[in-house]
Amino acid sequence: ASLFTAIEMAPRDPILGITEAFNADKNPNKVNLGVGVYYDDNGKVPLLDCVRKAEAQLMEKPTPRSYLPIDGLAAYDKAVQELVFGADSAVVQEKRAVTVQALGGTGALKIGADFLKRFSPDSQVWISDPSWENHRALFESAGFVVNNYPYYDAATRGVNFTGMLNALKEMPAGSIVLLHACCHNPTGADLTEEQWTDVINVVSQRGLIPFLDMAYQGFGDGIEEDGKVVRRFAEAGGPLFVSNSFSKSFSLYGERVGALSIAAVSAEEAARVLSQLKRVVRTNYSNPPIHGGQVVATSLANPELRKLWEDELAGMRVRIREMRQELVKKLKEKAPGKDFDFVIKQRGMFSYSGLTKEQVGRLRDEFSIYAVDTGRICVAALNSRNIDAVVDAIAKVL
Ligand code: PMP
């Protein structure tokens, strides 16, 4: 027997499995609603003009590719920190925040998890039920016990807020609570401002450690609006972790651009935190790649490119909203008596559609329309050419 003899095949990633089945499907009218990517109305991943222009600027003055500092490009970290907390915020002004460039939102969560395991080893982690499936795996592989707090209520197709708040009230001090800052993945159900107030109060009173995951800033109600919850947590004081990602908002999935920001109580504390965070990065991958960070830093710092980015992001947000509205309107015609109005209230790329596993199976087998077994569909994969076929098929399997 060799080292590998006893190794079992790892379970297939459920979402990548959908894409494999979709790719193998020969039906020319197939639709993949299982993805976690924004497609434009032509069904393509967009290359944003702001990215194209930032890259053109960078090409004019090519730079040698030495290593970046462990915490990444300084201009990137600064721009991201100001985006996440607000340039005028107390945490930024008082230099109490630290931001390190990370390999996408996933990389930010990973270095945050490793950092927390070093300095709060006995904490347990709490994620929403359900959550992005990698949240549990990331924190478990960092060595934490991961629990669920109640979140989605299938009956109301909204948030079981009482259940969530009660769970927060019972967590031991020092528990790490992972919260989706906006555009909850997979449900699309977000908290209201008043509900966030209650969450922030309980988190502060009980001494919980909030970890906000913001992978979809700008896809809900706007860049400012979606980021507001981060600022509110920062104003409440106490330790705060924020992972953010530009995979979706800059359509830079493969460049792996994200960041981890931590708010501390003083500049002196922040300096110590940063020094330790760098050790975590150093032992994971030494330092991040240059290109994506340069593109984002250039776009955020240049007023013209920044405006372009904000407009292009608004375009993506508005298109998704229109698809939500079209979906509901067309389902009203094709499946009268069924209520899909909740789809309009949901935020971000996804919708928990309420479709059962059986219905999802029929969509796939009879219509070549692919969704996640849980009923999650990517609204950003709908477009003016495939929506009628999708609606017809849903109406038939209901
Ligand atoms: N958090 C959530 C909630 C996500 O949905 C995703 C990506 N789908 C990520 C983090 C990771 O983002 P990235 O692709 O930038 O690693």
TrEMBL record:
Its EC number is 2.6.1.-. Keywords: Aminotransferase, Coiled coil, Pyridoxal phosphate, Transferase. CDD domains: AAT_like (cd00609). Its cofactor is pyridoxal 5'-phosphate. One of its GO terms (biological process) is L-phenylalanine biosynthetic process from chorismate via phenylpyruvate. GO terms for molecular function: identical protein binding; L-tyrosine-2-oxoglutarate transaminase activity; pyridoxal phosphate binding. InterPro entries: Aminotransferase_I/II_large (IPR004839), Asp_trans (IPR000796), NHTrfase_class1_PyrdxlP-BS (IPR004838), PyrdxlP-dep_Trfase (IPR015424), PyrdxlP-dep_Trfase_major (IPR015421), PyrdxlP-dep_Trfase_small (IPR015422). It comes from the Bacteria. One of its GO terms (cellular component) is cytosol. Residues 29-394 form the Aminotransferase class I/classII large domain. The keyword Transmembrane does not apply. This is Aminotransferase. It comes from Noviherbaspirillum saxi. The lineage of its organism: Bacteria, Pseudomonadati, Pseudomonadota, Betaproteobacteria, Burkholderiales.
